[in-house]
Amino acid sequence: MVEFLIGLGLPGWVAWSIAALVAAVLLLNVIAGGALVFIWAERKIAARIQDRLGPTRTGGRFGWLQSLADGIKLLAKEDLMPEGADGLLFRLAPYVSFCASFCAFIALPFAFDVVGQRLNVGVFFVVAVLGLEVFGVILAGYASASKWSLFGAMREAAQVVSYEVPLGMCVVVPVMLAGSMDLVTIGEKQAGWMSSWYLFHDPFTFIIFSVYVTCAVASVNRAPFDLAEAESELVAGFHTEYSGLRWSFFFMAEYGSMFLVSGLAAVLFLGGWNGPVPVAQLLGFSDGTGESAAYVVRLMGLANFMGKATLGVLFMMWIRWTLPRLRIDQVMTTCLKYCTPIAAVMFAGAMFWQLFLPGGLFPGWGRPAGEIREGWLEGPGGLPAAASPAEDRSSTLTGGEPVERAGLATRSPR
Amino acid sequence: MPDLIEDDPRIIEFDVRTDEMLVNMGPQHPSTHGVLRLVLRTDGEIVSETEPHIGYLHRCAEKIGENLTPRQWIPYTDRLDYLAAMNMNLGWALTVEKLMRHEVGEKARHLRVLIAELNRISSHLVGMGAYGLDLGTFSPFLYAFRERERILDLFEEACGARLTYSYITVGGATADLPPGWLQRCEAFLDQFEPIIKEYHALLTTNAIFVKRTAGIGVLSRAMAIDYGCSGPVLRGSGVDQDLRRDGESLYTGMYDGYAFEVAVQKEGRYPRDHSYPTVPSEAVLGDCWHRFFVRMLEVVQSMDLVRQAIDRYAACPEPLPEPLKLFEKLPVGDAYLETEAPKGQMGFYVVGNGTSIPWRVRARSSSFSNLSVTHELCRGCLIADVPAIVGSLDIVMGEIDR
Are residues B43 and B130 in the same domain? Predict the structure, then answer.
């Protein structure tokens, strides 16, 4: 796309800006549309779990327009601000939360190279930016001039900051196995049969995945760790005083983060966009089937990734409607006494496993497809090689054809 | 009460001391069960003092009772403990009958046991579901309401109302049960019995639930007696007292011939606990978990009583007696009677002066005494424990404020 725009005679910076804008709008739609779908899904799922029907009328069958109707209702609400509130911070807080959730999506690959911006520190970027979401919550709690909000904000601060530690340790393990912090590379390394997913790499990664799930649920404030908005204790926690559109931004940030941590789990542990069976290879897309085949494979990868991330979100909904809420001291105990030590031990275990048993217990078994993906990419009909470092930064989503090769080139031959 | 929270040895372990803050919990708070207002003095998350404020639902019900005949006041008793309106009707009807020395027949007696125990089940279901809600799980609440709806359907068939029944009245009941009602009631019990296991899986034995309730809000036996607690709150502390067995003969006579065991822990075990989850090791007698568990046991106990009552009621050939006239003259004198309502001892006092309108009406509610222990139980707990403790007392504001 950038080349196309430059070809039209636009200066480089204009072309880049337009491309970035298009990517941003696409991602924004992923979050907003995703939130609409997930809110509707949560209502239906919660209803099914609880022997209810949930929304049935809005938009015809299944009430599928319910979230849109809710959105319109929120838009139409009066914009209220408490009298003693700190106006600027009160207004700013929802956007800080939402922007943090949104920005993290930039580095999240939806399929091979279908990524807003491929970053060589992708994992680091996502975890760091996601951590910024807590600032919005603290600002909201502080600026609301409400004691319940303040309680919620303090809980959120304590909880999220604590859970960043074990979450970081969990995330480091796939990084170590892949030898790269680039999410695209990490996903690419798990190509092939299901057995090459990092979840099944060794027993340590299997356990650390469950730690990751716990920490991820806690870091996005979902039940049973939803202390910051504990309804029965703190009314609504940090967003007690919010209503209308501002409140909906918190809501969208929450659902965006849910999808983000699920997507991160998919990329880091569940093979990303690689399906359980290497369909592309089996169908013979491996050599010389051309550029269109590459797009079909990407589309399949997109479906794979979305499926896995959605399953993660549905899992969070399931436990939310099943379990009671933990108390703040129990949440901290879970983090500091259980999650962190387990994550540390598993990290060490995975490290030694990689050191002494790099091929797994049965060397040569279970990872046959590693080269195949490389094969069809580098094949005669595949994508052209990268031309210059400047173009390496472009991505498919922004229309950039070149594929960054660095991650693939450094891969050791098997 | 210690002036400074530093004086309280229970909260020394939390070593960080900051400024105290006064927080209003209620009357519009979602987990204060109506319009209770709790003023919390907190140090961070730690609650150093809790003060309940009541009176937001005061309706002068007792004064109104002094301007109406006893049967006219029956709808007002519905609104005392509105979750167990049948038991309230029963308490008042029995008190007036005691004053008038009136005896209802066998059939009315079995009908009253049947209806009162059925309402005990529905009241405990709400208590259980709402307790889950207090602890942050929503689904058991709706499961409990699903079963409660079936009971309300039965009540609706019997008396036309779903919440404020005014069914049991002075001298009997307003109407006999419709045909086929007993079969439908039995069908409900058969369907309900296996579902109790689900509640145990979701709440009683759930690891997080046990963590949140076991050892929290321990009400000692002596304290429970001192504060005049009653009902499941008292029995949860291990005091073996149930008015259906230990009450006045006029009331216990109603349960003559009925077999039931009082749900209380004796020598470390509950009656019938063979088919029930074992008490978790963390639980201390008198904590929130035990209060909750006693309620769960009473549901089963009431189901047993309902089954017995159905058989006995069906075996009575005579028709149900007509209730007393609306303007029946009351004799000179007074009467006080306590009954075992789902929430505890419900006492009514009535003074007659020869007219049909009582000279004095007074109600003594269990929730009021049960609520009075909150400031003792909540001292030194965390904010999240306050709903857990208040919820485990299972209070109804209509009964407290009257």
Answer: no
- Considering the entire predicted model, what is its pTM? 0.81
Residue A333 touches partner B, C-beta closer than 8 Å = no
**Shortest CA gap A183–chain B (Å):** 35
A312 is a domain residue: yes
Distance of alpha carbon B73 from the chain centroid: 21
CATH number at residue B338: 1.10.645.10
Predicted confidence pLDDT, tens digits, chain A (414 residues): 667 777 777 777 888 888 888 888 888 888 888 888 888 888 888 888 888 888 888 877 788 888 888 888 888 888 888 887 788 888 888 888 888 888 888 888 887 767 777 788 888 888 888 888 888 888 888 888 888 888 888 888 888 888 888 998 888 888 888 888 888 888 877 777 777 788 877 788 888 898 999 988 888 888 788 877 777 777 777 888 888 888 888 888 888 888 889 999 988 888 878 777 777 666 666 545 566 777 777 788 888 888 888 898 899 888 888 888 888 888 888 888 888 999 999 888 888 887 777 665 655 554 444 443 443 343 333 344 433 343 344 444 444 444 443 334 333 343
CB contact under 8 A, B211 and A326: yes
Task: Give the nearest partner residue to A322 out of B133, B139, B387, using CB atoms.
Answer: B139
Asked if the Cβ–Cβ distance from B211 to A330 is below 8 Å, we say yes
In this complex, do B138 and A46 lie within 8 Å of one another by their Cβ atoms? Answer: yes
Whether residue A413 lies inside any domain: the answer is: no
Total count of domains within chain B: 2
| Bridge pairing between strands B344-352 and B168-169 | unpaired
Residue A123: inside a domain, yes or no? yes
Pick among A48, A49, A229, A232 to test the B interface (most B CBs inside 10 A): A232
Separation in Å, CA of A153 to nearest CA in chain B: 12
The reply to whether B265 and B396 lie within a common domain is yes
Residue A43 lies in a domain: no
Helix (H) or strand (E) holding A147: helix A147-178
Residue pair B53/B38 in contact by the 8 Å Cβ criterion: yes
Task: Measure in Å the smallest separation between the Cα of A46 and chain B Cα atoms.
Answer: 8
Return the CA Rg of chain A. 22
Residue B355 CA, chain-centre distance (Å), reads 33
Cross-chain CB nearest to A324 (options B143, B146, B206): B206
Q: How many domains does chain A have?
A: 1
Closest by CA to A165, choosing from A204, A211, A206, is: A211
Question: Which range of residues forms the domain containing residue A293?
Answer: 77-384
Range of the domain at B142: 61-401
Instruction: Give A-chain residues touching B20 at CB under 8 angstroms.
Output: none
Closest of A411, A413, A365, A414 to residue A188, by C-alpha: A411
Residues of chain B with Cβ-Cβ distance to A323 below 8 Å are: 137, 206, 208
User: B77 with B31, same domain?
Assistant: no
